[in-house]
Each structure stands twice: as structure tokens, then as C-alpha cells.
# Entry
Amino acid sequence: MSNERTYTSFSGDRQVASGKLEEMLTQSIQAMQGPEAQNLVIIDDTTGRQVDFDFRGTIEEVLRRNIPEKPSRKPGRPRLGVVSREISLLPRHWEWLAEQRGGASATLRRLVDEARRTETATDRARRAAAITGRAMTILAGDRENYEEAYRALDAGDRERFETLTATWPSELRGYLMSLAQEAFSPQ
# Structure
């Protein structure tokens, strides 16, 4: 599994661009300048969530504003792209974490990495269904058979999902099926 995120943009029912951030943004900007450009919807393929970008200015300005710079190598502790969030644990959990090599944060990172490495097919299927479901809600939440298709996705029923989405635009169906591959894998 690649750590590099990919994104897919849609203008109405048409898939405009897909790929790494810079490539997708460049193609999307070029498409937005065309006459048929509608509101552009961009999905993070890793999460299934919609992401927004500031498209004002030239392509260079948009890329500079929306693509994070690669960190320069400076002396000291490297930036890991750390995101701070709150977690709630019982006192015994905090005590155990404090005794571990590297402290609580390093131990939690190791535990998460290990859990990701040993993820079961059922876990991967559940995650793929959740990612696809989020994208499907954004792109097709008002479509015929949406709710039943969502239920088929959650059940891992590929045949029923394909039947229920048969009338949806082909580019939309193709995108959702690509996200859902592991959701329909044998468990």
C-alpha cells in the first residue's frame, strides 16, 4: 500500500482527473477553464472524504498555495507530520505507556503500525466499504437506489451493488468500483 495520497475530481458526473495531488490539481484547473466546468468535487481516494482547494490565480499560484513544501533538513528532531489529537485512556493505560521505550507517543505509533501490518481481510473489506460509502454519499447520495446500493456495499454483495448502480453514469460507477474492490473480496 502506497503512502502517497491520490485524489480524484469530478465535474458533475464526469471524472476530470485522478492522481497525485499536483497532477490532479493541474488537470482539474485546466478542465475548470472549459465551458462545461461545473462545481468541482474532489475526493481523497485514501479516505473517501471531499477536500477543498483554493483555485484562485494561475496554475503556479494554486499549486504553491495548496501543495505543502517538502521540509528542509535542519539539525534537530525531524518533523514527522505529527497531528495532535486527544485520546482518553484509563490511568493504568497511561502508566503502562509511560514505562515503554520512547514514551506514550512512540509506543502508540508502534502499536498502530503493527495493527496495520496485521490487518485481516475482514478489516480491509470493512475499511474499503467505509471509504467507498463516504465517496458514494458525496457523489451519488441523491441517485436512484443509493440507499440499497449502500446496504449492498456494507454487506459485501458485489452483484447486488452492480445491479443497483447500473443506471448511474459509467465514470462514477467505475470510480466507486475501484474504491470498493477490497469491500467485495472474499473474506
